[in-house]
């Protein structure tokens, strides 16, 4: 499309974090895929505790895996060459091309390491462009974070290195979107501004005609068009980088909109442990009709739950301390003694065991676990990254593993390479609940243990729901964005002669008022 055998590209930046870059990127990917183009997502550097394992065993951001699904391509380490996984001591694990390479503080990373990674990042992007018709790149935070511009490898430095046009997304639901668009542009250098080609208003509620005078003024002030006003659509998020949100059927603090299939609902409480990771595991539960999923960190919120989920964490020892300080360890022990269901996943599984020996993550040495499962965990320096599959509860199941902890299972009933004792279940497998038949079998067991007359719906297909979600994102772009203008940018690059907007540029005289 763009230069000979090189595919076109576009960078989706944002005025702030959580402006909607991930959703817009996924929507553009699905729209282009439906046009018959081979498209790939890309995020040079991602900071997230929600990650995924590709088929070749590489760890990437979960959002990029979902964007790949939107593009209808297999996710690859090339799509997210740098992943930063925050830890509990103001450091992050640096995952490069899908493999962990060390721990760095923010100062250490921005003090020189990030600049050295720019070459790797641009090589990955170039490879994707060689093998795809288009690559839709997602920025991080805001491109106008001028304190970090020198070490930037994900926003304007990437755009300039790859000569990519940039579209800036702003969340109007937060307010101040016109100031954000103008200020973001004005804070950039002349060379950076030359690539900023337009704006996308996100999460608009109301009559678009009332917005048009402001859009006209923004164009006069900046010389750049608004390429779409995307309406607010409830529940349109994809797998999040952070935040307590599930991506199907609303937030975790709401009941499923579908009525229960059986006589009763099933109430699930998820413990928001510190450094919680891959809480997307609960999406499939939230998508199940009649299952109410919520986060709760008070003993009474666990007391009335039919199932308590202890999710993954990048700080198993810290999560143990947190549970004990809040009195939640006692509640979990009481649930286990009463035969009331508890599910631990990855780090949540590890802390349910007898002890944790950690000289890697927290370097705390041997720490006593909750003792609810006959498991002893030792942290290894090598990280396990795998895509296991098998059978559990008589049904086929697939998942993925991301952990340093090696579990020695000493007893109990085998369960997804973990174990079950009574009503307490533990596994290292993320994503297992997305296997429909297994999820239904597990929920039937939980309902029986909880004494609930809950029956899982026989026809809920998580993969179908996910596809419907991604199609809704494609519809959002196709119906509310200037797709012809977006296609021109992807094919031809930024228009020549875009004006420079100096900081503090005055409004046109005809718009002044006293």
From TrEMBL:
Full protein name: Cobyric acid synthase
UniProt domain CobQ/CobB/MinD/ParA nucleotide binding: residue ranges: 11-243
Recorded family membership: Belongs to the CobB/CobQ family. CobQ subfamily.
Pathway: Cofactor biosynthesis; adenosylcobalamin biosynthesis
Record-linked CDD domains: CobQ_N, GATase1_CobQ
Function: Catalyzes amidations at positions B, D, E, and G on adenosylcobyrinic A,C-diamide. NH(2) groups are provided by glutamine, and one molecule of ATP is hydrogenolyzed for each amidation.
Lineage: Bacteria, Bacillati, Actinomycetota, Actinomycetes, Kitasatosporales
Residues forming the catalytic site: 346 (nucleophile), 430
UniProt-listed Pfam families: CbiA, GATase_3
GO molecular function, one term: catalytic activity
Organism: Streptomyces chumphonensis
Keywords (A to Z) from UniProt: Cobalamin biosynthesis, Glutamine amidotransferase
Name of the coding gene: cobQ
All residue ranges annotated as the CobB/CobQ-like glutamine amidotransferase domain in the record: 267-437
Any one GO biological process: cobalamin biosynthetic process
